[in-house]
Specification:
Rossmann fold; globular; alpha/beta; ATP binding; helicase activity; two-stranded parallel ribbon
Amino acid sequence: MVTSKLSESAGFGRSLFERLSSLGLGKDLLNMQYRMHPSISYFPNANFYNNKILDGPNVKHPDYKKQYLPGRMYGSYSFINVAEGMEVFDRHSPKNVVEIAVVLQLVRRLFEASLSSKQKLSVGVVCPYSAQVSEIQEKLGKTYETYSDFTVSVKSIDGFQGGEQDVIIISTVRSNRKGAVGFLSNLQRTNVALTRARHCLWIVGNGLTLSNSGLVLDAKSRGCYFNAEEDAHLAEAIISAVIEIGQYNHLLDSNSLLFNRAKWKWSGRRK
């Protein structure tokens, strides 16, 4: 990956395959994928491969569909809207504390589900920004390292290239009124992020910030778009994070579901 605009304009962002293709060498498309559940491959296939990729018989088999957590929000493919998030810059890299709280809660619940079912489970957390990666890694610490049947890895998009996990959670980080979407503007990186999961891909992000992106529009059209506060566990995690960073305006909106949950939480604290 080339981050310098000057280097990119000079052609250093071109891959070896692009260079060979530009010189007239023929190319063949490997048109069958054996990794992703069809609901995961649907978006990248339509947006990056002109619907030329076929799903292998293994991923189309009914047994390939997994439901690790209860509820429609935790199907094979979901966009989980975290409207309360706030992006802040750690040096030159953005992070989102509220999204971090949601991601940690999801990992914790997946771990509990793996323990109770005695089922092996690998989880990957993908973040496009180094500050978010570092913060999540620090908060996780060595919590799950002693469990052989449950693994969790947190990496940047570039660090996950070529990798795959049973469940992938993408933290998009960006939360702003300008609609600045960061990594989603880079099709190669977006493609890598969206194609790492075998059974479940959950995208955590601000639906309003990403409202004009194909991700949100596609998720809504397929009925895969959910608000995080609809889940009581995620709502509690969001409330705690909002209180931690002093972003109380979200708790004072009487029209929000989060307000109703926060009201009970604060009422309980006063007792």
